[in-house]
Structures are given as structure tokens and as C-alpha cells.
């Protein structure tokens, strides 16, 4: 049984490869919940929904959020009536969010996700990192403290990032047990600061990871992330935005780091920080790329 630590965009691509070659019922995914929030009566759990939609083969692969082919009738009517939502939410996606808000009145997020993933025919286990809500804030030079989604969407990540803040939350009931029971833990190429670190800094997680074979895929090539604001977030934490920075951030529990062919020259330096760096193609453009990378992390 394997456990995968996931955020949104990066790890779901790797999951697409893993689920082609590994029994889905033996996969557990622990998902970041740091950005979850209520919006327009629904409960947005962006990274959880991206992981669910990826397993259910309904993810919109242009944006890595939302459901492919979704319509936006409600959004358009809301705008016509003068209500603009920061997030672009499709009608089917909104149904999933509304159902979460309805069920969360009587059930925990862990229970709600279990119910919804079963309804979507998903055999993998999907566990929120916490059942507690938290808020992630970005401290910027230009606008002070702003919401994560304001930073991402309204300001298109263009601010100077001074700090990233999020609450410490308690682990969801099955989190530590999932890590302890797994033969291997895979940290996907998600944003190390806003997707992975919120999981690894939860009480008990780092200790549990130290007893496991942990392999990560770097979300960086050279000094840049493949996509998104990871560069700025790493720098704000004092880590270089590179695979070397990832090795340093995860050094207390990481056994292996998969780095891109273009970073071959960093292998020696990384192996002074963690036991092993594996050099491979880490660009996941095609399903074949994703399967090849999955074979490496499952070895
Ligand atoms: C805004 C975005 O957040 P989110 O959508 O939650 O994304 P993640 O934090 O899960 O992942 C972003 C992370 O993914 C890396 N990425 C994307 N495509 C690839 C790829 O083909 N190979 C590879 N090794 N990494 C990939 C990317 O560099 C990002 O850092 C966000 O925080 O970016
Ligand atoms: O950058 C955006 N991210 C959107 N996201 C993704 C999310 O806000 C973040 O980009 C990532 O999850 C960052 O972790 C959505 C997620 C959902 O679950 C539902 C709707 C959206 C809509 C947007 C959007 O319009 N723009
Ligand atoms: Mg995310």
C-alpha cells in the first residue's frame, strides 16, 4: 500500500501515471486542506476536488481544477444579478461544493470526502490532512496581508511575497495511521510551501515519515517551478527555489528525490543533503511521461 502527499496541480499529474500501473484500491492520498473555505454557500476544497476529479477521470486538465466540459450557467446568472465570485466555478463543480457544505453540518470533512469519492466510483482512499478549517494568508509588500486566492487570482501572483502564514491544525483521524501502514510514502511535485509543508508540519507527521521510505518528485527544474508561485514562496521561507531547496526543506524525512535531467549537475550536492537523488525526465506532458515517472517512484 502506498501513501501519496498531494496538493493540486503537480501531484495529480503523477497520480494519473501511478493509477495506470498500481492497484487503485492500494493507494491512499493525503490532501492539503489549508486553503479550504466557504464561498457562495458551497465549501471549496480545491486540492481535494482536484485529486477526486483526477481519480474519476473528470478533471479539467487545462486548469487542474474543476470538471472538464462543465457549464457555467449559475456563475453567469450570478454575474448578471451583480454577484461576482473570485473563483470561476462550474455548475457540476458547484454541486460537489454545495453537497460538502450540506453534509459538513452533520459530518466531518473526512466522512464527507469518503462519501463523495465513493459516489464518484473512486477505489483509492482520499484523506484530508485535517478536519479543522484553517486560513492561509500571503503577506505581500504591495498589499500587506491578503487571502491566498486573492494573491493567486486577483493579483495573479505578481506581488512580492514577504511571508506565507497558515494555522497549525490537528491531524485528521486516519492521517498518521495511513502513513504508518504504508510500504512507501510518495511526496508529489506539489508546491512545497503551500501544499506539502502544511501536511508535514502537522503534529506527528514528520515523526511518522522518518520511519518510512519517503521519495519525492521535485516541482522545480533549474531555479524555476514548472508552474505557479512556488519560487516566491520558497524564497520567503529562506529556501532556494530549486531541487536543492526542496532537498533541504524535506531533509529530516526524505530518502530519495527525483530531479529533472536538466538538474543532473545538482545530484552530487543533493546527495550531501539526503541519501539519494534520481535523475530522470520530470516534465509530465503525456500519459507516457506520467507512467515513466510513476515507475521510478514505485520502484
Ligand atoms: C497554484 C498552484 O497550487 P496547486 O494547484 O495546489 O498546485 P500544487 O501545489 O499541487 O502543484 C504546483 C506545483 O506543481 C508543479 N508541477 C506542475 N506540473 C509539473 C510537471 O509536469 N512536473 C513536475 N515535476 N512538477 C510539476 C509546479 O512546479 C508547481 O510548483 C501552485 O502552487 O503552483
Ligand atoms: O487560479 C484559480 N484557481 C481556481 N481554483 C484553484 C484553487 O483556487 C487554486 O488555484 C489551487 O488550488 C491552489 O492551491 C479553483 C478551485 C476549485 O476547487 C474551484 C474553482 C476554482 C477556480 C479557480 C480560478 O478561477 N482561478
Ligand atoms: Mg493547492
Give the helix level as a range of percent: 25-40%
CATH topology of the domain at 175-298: Rossmann fold
Rg over CA atoms, rounded to whole Å, is: 18 Å
Query: What are the bound molecules?
Result: ligand LZ5QJXY3, the ligand O=c1nc2n(C[C@H](O)[C@H](O)[C@H](O)CO)c3cc(O)ccc3cc-2c(=O)[nH]1, magnesium ion
Element-level helix/strand string: EHEEEHHHHEEEHEHEHHEEEHHEHEH
Subunit structure: Homodimer.
Family: Belongs to the CofD family.
Binding site for 7,8-didemethyl-8-hydroxy-5-deazariboflavin: 49, 88
GO biological process, one term: F420-0 metabolic process
Summarize the structure in words.
- The strands form four sheets. The protein has a seven-stranded parallel sheet with strand order 5-2-1-9-10-13-14, with helices on both faces.
- The chain has helices spanning 10-21, 46-55, 73-80, 91-103, 109-119, 148-154, 175-181, 192-200, 205-210, 230-236, 243-249, 267-270, 287-298, and strands at residues 2-6, 27-31, 37-39, 42-44, 125-128, 136-140, 144-147, 161-166, 184-187, 214-217, 220-221, 224-225, 256-260, 276-280.
- The radius of gyration is 18 Å and the shape is globular.
- Helix 1 (10-21) packs parallel to helix 2 (46-55) and helix 1 packs across helix 13 (287-298).
- The model has no long low-confidence stretch (mean pLDDT 97).
- It is of the alpha/beta class and 299 residues long.
- It is built from 13 helices and 14 strands.
- Among the domains are: 136-166, no CATH class; 175-298, CofD-like domains (Rossmann fold, 3-Layer(aba) Sandwich), CATH 3.40.50.
Amino acid at each position: 500500500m502506498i501513501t501519496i502527499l498531494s496538493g493540486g496541480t503537480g501531484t495529480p499529474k503523477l497520480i494519473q501515471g501511478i493509477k495506470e500501473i498500481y492497484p487503485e484500491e492500494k493507494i491512499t492520498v493525503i490532501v492539503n486542506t489549508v486553503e479550504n473555505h466557504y464561498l457562495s454557500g458551497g465549501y471549496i476544497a480545491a486540492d481535494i476536488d482536484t485529486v477526486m476529479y483526477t481519480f474519476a477521470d473528470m478533471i479539467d486538465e487545462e486548469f487542474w481544477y474543476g470538471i472538464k466540459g462543465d457549464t457555467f450557467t449559475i456563475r453567469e446568472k450570478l454575474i448578471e444579478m451583480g454577484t461576482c465570485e473570485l473563483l470561476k466555478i462550474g455548475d457540476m463543480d458547484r454541486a460537489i461544493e454545495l453537497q460538502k457544505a450540506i453534509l459538513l453540518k452533520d459530518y466531518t470533512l473526512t466522512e464527507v470526502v469518503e462519501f463523495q469519492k465513493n459516489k464518484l466510483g473512486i477505489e483509492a482512499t482520499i484523506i484530508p490532512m485535517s478536519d479543522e478549517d484553517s486560513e492561509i494568508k500571503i503577506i505581500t509588500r504591495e498589499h500587506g496581508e491578503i487571502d491566498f486566492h486573492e494573491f493567486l487570482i486577483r493579483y495573479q501572483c505578481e506581488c512580492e511575497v514577504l511571508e506565507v502564514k497558515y494555522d497549525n491544525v490537528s491531524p485528521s483521524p486516519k492521517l498518521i495511521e495511513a502513513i504508518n501502514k504504508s510500504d512507501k510514502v510518495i511526496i508529489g511535485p506539489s508546491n512545497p510551501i503551500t501544499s506539502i509543508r502544511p501536511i508535514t508540519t502537522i503534529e506527528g507527521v514528520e515523526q511518522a515519515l522518518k520511519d518510512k521510505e519517503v521519495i519525492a518528485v521535485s516541482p522545480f527544474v533549474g531555479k524555476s517551478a514548472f508552474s505557479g508561485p512556488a519560487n516566491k514562496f520558497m524564497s520567503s521561507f529562506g529556501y532556494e527555489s530549486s531541487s536543492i531547496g526542496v532537498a533541504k526543506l524535506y531533509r529530516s524525512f526524505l530518502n530519495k528525490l527525483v530531479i529533472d535531467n536538466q538538474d543532473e549537475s545538482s545530484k552530487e550536492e543533493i546527495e550531501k543533503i539526503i541519501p539519494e537523488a534520481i535523475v530522470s525526465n520530470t516534465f509530465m506532458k503525456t500519459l507516457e511521461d506520467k507512467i515513466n515517472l510513476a515507475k521510478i517512484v514505485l520502484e
